[in-house]
Write a structure and sequence with these properties.
By secondary structure, the chain is of the alpha+beta class. The chain contains 21 helices and 28 strands. The strands form seven sheets. The protein has a seven-stranded mixed beta sheet with strand order 3-5-1-12-9-10-11. Helix 12 (378-396) packs parallel to helix 20, helix 17 packs across helix 18 (593-602) and helix 19 (662-681) crosses helix 20 (734-752). It starts with 18 loop residues before the first helix and ends with a helix.
Length: 776
């Protein structure tokens, strides 16, 4: 463990304890590290979207100055390195297993998307390695490519032999017969098709990795920005290098944004570890921004088809959804999860729809693999449902707010068993919507709309009532230790990637133990230190690791009462604990938490579970997911002459259960809204027909800017979660879940005054202008 594994002590005077080191340049990211004797890796990347690999002539590259080695797929195969598989393998609806399309460290026979690494040069400097890469001579036999899900359906050359129709997974859930029956008797049926545009996560910190090899211990060390060191270690140990877990150490320091993208164990990480073992020196790689666009797992990418059946009074009878999802050339770690369960689990949303049916066809495409991206399948369901409701309101003539009210789950029906298998433990969805409508001055919109028309502008307002599912993997462990000086050290398996773990978790410990927050240290990002656990995904950190932390504090207090009773020669029942001190009831006899912890390590007459004194590894297993929910209202103004969409108002009311730290919660919601609006206003990964990436820089990929957003107005509605001791619900992804549907509904509302009924993301000025002029 290095000094950087122990995070800075919490600062009780700051809103966020993390901020000072990050803002003053004292943070430590992977690229900040340089090790003695370090070499540098640069990858040769495929210029083709699909091709057989022929001969790779490395002769000239090896003769270049400073070059230590050149590695290809042949070297990887000869070393018997395995590919990186998916973490969870689902079955098709017919019971057959999902197609295997694992990610190779370096491919031997075929490249499957532009940018895929097919060789690696290791040299004394980055510049020398780059010069040598340009001397490689590779032969390719180009094959037909399909870069979109639709194109992949028209199979010319299968991307994988195991999936001759390019379908990696054909999965369904729900009651198809009940849905069909409901549609056959419905008074109203509305259908919709939506493009869910592929996006690039665009983390502030590009991916980077340093591989090390210790020949004496026969042990790897990988330093990389991850969303959880345990999963990366497990995947590489069990599937790539075929070594025991303790032969790999993974370290993660500060992480400059992840959004789901940095959960993946990437091929480049395994490659630098392999090179370090071959060369006996550390090997470092840092992605360029172009490499990030080419090879980071992308997000979204699908064609969403939906239908909603209603009775004559506007009551929802059934919902049907089919997602044709492009998942890229390889099945990433969690691709089978976010394209299936995550979408299915959100289809019921906040409404009493009796019957649901969902089908997804996960299509292999000649594009970068798709991974979890903020929301990870949840926004797809919510976007479809909320767009269908607005369309149904127009078809039935029922006001869109009233239509939602008629179908919302009543708070008296909670706990509510939804037809998708989820059991909502808490929530008051109509109250949340009413708060949002009041804060947004929904009733005053007509006046604002009229004022915009006088200025020649189109104005629209839209809302989204949503419920998403948080928690993901429902078990997590923490390791909490009390030192003789009374300080506490909390070891976590989850990884902070901007959520404020240092602020939040240290305060959970401080409040539960009654000690100062600055006395609590946080240790994460080191597989040698971290307990077993899962990554920071699915808005699960506070719910799962936070609850485990609370349980650990409870257990330490109970252990401490027994030890203190022994030290003070009193019955355990007579020992109380408060503010870091154990005492005998009604006396002034007391002993500090630190002293009890120190003495407990020395005592030999304690029960078996006191093996390490008061030190406690606590596990929390949740009985179910948590269900963050909310209502977002977006207001836009569109310039007829230019097609520019300006977001002029945005309100968010969120129920994330008990709020542990309001600035952190609101920061998470702000970030989610920004990413959702970014996708609506212009973010889109575009490949041409030959598979060449057209949006490989920030000159071509439209990132949202501060000027794209108004002052966001946020408030909260707290309905504590009943399935964890903290009462918290996930907060990290609700912003994007509300933003995409609310903004698109607002844009449709504005365009509807011009007779435009169908319009897809992204709402760039060019596309909006074309729609207004009948050219889209």
């Amino acid at each position: 463990m290095t000094e950087h594994s122990i995070r800075f002590a919490s600062d009780p005077r700051a809103l966020r304890s993390e901020d000072q080191p990050l803002l003053t340049g004292r943070a430590l990211f992977t690229d900040d590290l340089s090790l003695p004797g370090q070499l540098y890796a640069v990858f040769a990347r495929s210029p083709h979207a699909h091709a057989r690999i022929g001969e790779i002539d490395v002769t000239r590259a090896l003769k270049m100055p400073g070059v230590a080695a050149v590695f290809t797929g042949k070297d990887v195969a000869e070393a018997d390195l395995g590919p990186i598989p998916m973490a969870m393998r689902f079955k098709n609806s017919d019971g057959t297993p999902m197609a295997l399309a694992p990610l190779p460290v370096l491919p031997r026979d075929r490249v499957r998307y532009v940018g895929e690494a097919f060789a690696m040069v290791v040299a004394e400097t980055v510049a020398l390695a780059q010069d040598a890469v340009e001397q490689l001579v590779a032969e390719f036999d180009e094959l037909p490519a399909a870069t979109t899900a639709r194109a992949a359906q028209e199979v010319i050359e299968p991307i994988w032999r195991e999936a001759p129709d390019n379908i990696a997974l054909d999965w369904e859930d729900g009651d198809a017969e009940a849905v069909d029956n409901a549609f056959s008797t419905a008074a109203h049926v509305v259908t919709i098709r939506l493009e869910d545009t592929r996006v690039a996560p665009s983390a502030m910190e590009p991916r980077a990795a340093i591989g090390e090899w210790d020949p004496e211990q026969q042990r790897f060390t990988l330093t990389a920005g991850t969303q959880g060191v345990a999963l990366v270690r497990k995947m590489f140990a069990e599937h790539v290098f075929n070594v025991p877990l303790d032969r790999i150490r993974v370290r993660t320091y500060d992480v400059g944004g992840g959004f789901g993208m940095k959960v993946q164990p990437y091929a480049e990480y395994a490659a630098v570890m392999f090179a370090a073992r071959c060369l006996g020196r550390p090997v470092k790689w840092t992605a360029t921004r172009v490499e990030s666009f080419l090879t980071d797992t992308h997000g979204r990418d699908g064609v969403l088809d939906g239908a909603l059946a209603l009775d004559a009074q506007g009551r929802f009878l059934a919902l049907r959804m089919h997602n044709t999802a492009g998942i890229g050339a390889y099945v990433s770690t969690f691709a089978s999860v976010f394209s299936t369960n995550n979408t299915k689990n959100c289809l019921a949303n906040v409404y009493t729809t009796p019957a649901l049916h969902f089908r997804v066809q996960a299509m292999l495409t000649n594009a970068a693999p798709v991974g979890p991206y903020r929301g990870a399948g949840r926004p797809e369901a919510i976007y479809l449902v909320e767009r269908l409701i607005d369309k149904a309101a127009r078809a039935t003539g029922i006001d869109r707010i009233e239509l939602r009210r008629r179908n919302m789950i009543s708070p008296t029906a909670i706990p509510y068993s939804a037809p998708n298998g989820q059991k909502y433990d808490s929530g008051d969805f109509e109250a949340v919507m009413d708060k949002a409508l009041d804060l947004a001055d929904w009733k005053g919109f007509a006046k604002r709309h009229s004022a915009s028309r006088k200025e020649g502008k189109l104005r629209g307002i839209g809302l989204c009532s949503f419920l998403e599912v948080a928690g993901g993997i429902l078990d997590e462990s923490v390791d909490l230790r009390i030192e003789p000086d009374g300080t506490a050290a909390l070891r976590l398996g989850v990884q902070s990637i901007g959520q404020g773990h240092l602020t939040t978790f240290t305060r959970i410990v401080a409040d539960a133990l009654g000690i100062a927050a600055e006395s609590v240290r946080l240790i994460e990002g080191d597989s040698d230190e971290a307990p077993k656990g899962w990554p920071t995904v699915a808005s699960r950190s506070a719910m799962m690791a936070g609850s485990a932390t609370f349980r650990a504090c409870e257990e330490i207090i109970e252990k401490g009462r027994l030890v203190a009773g022994s030290l003070l020669e009193a019955a355990t029942a007579d020992i109380t604990y408060e503010a870091g001190v154990f005492s005998i009831v009604g006396t002034d006899r007391r002993v500090s938490l630190g002293e009890v912890a120190g003495r407990a390590r020395e005592m030999t007459n304690l029960p078996e579970h006191f093996t390490n004194g008061l030190d406690t590894v606590a596990e929390f297993v949740s009985s179910g997911m948590s269900f963050p929910n909310g209502c977002h209202v977006c207001e836009v103004e569109i310039d007829r002459e230019t097609g520019e969409v300006k977001v002029v108002g945005y309100v968010a009311v969120d129920d994330v259960g008990v709020i542990l730290n309001e600035p952190i919660v609101e920061g998470q919601i702000h970030g989610g809204i920004a990413q959702g609006l970014g996708q609506v206003l212009g973010e889109q990964v575009i490949y041409d027909d030959n598979g060449q990436l057209q949006t490989a820089s920030f000159m071509d990929y439209r990132m949202p800017r501060a000027m794209d957003f108004p002052q966001l107005r946020l408030t909260h509605h707290v309905a504590p979660c009943a399935t964890n001791p903290l009462g918290v619900k996930g907060a990290g992804e609700s912003g994007v879940a509300g933003a995409i549907p609310a903004a698109m509904n607002a844009i449709h509302d504005a365009l509807s005054h011009e007779g435009i009924e169908d319009f897809d993301m992204p709402a760039t000025p060019a596309r909006v202008w074309k729609a207004l002029n009948g050219r889209l």
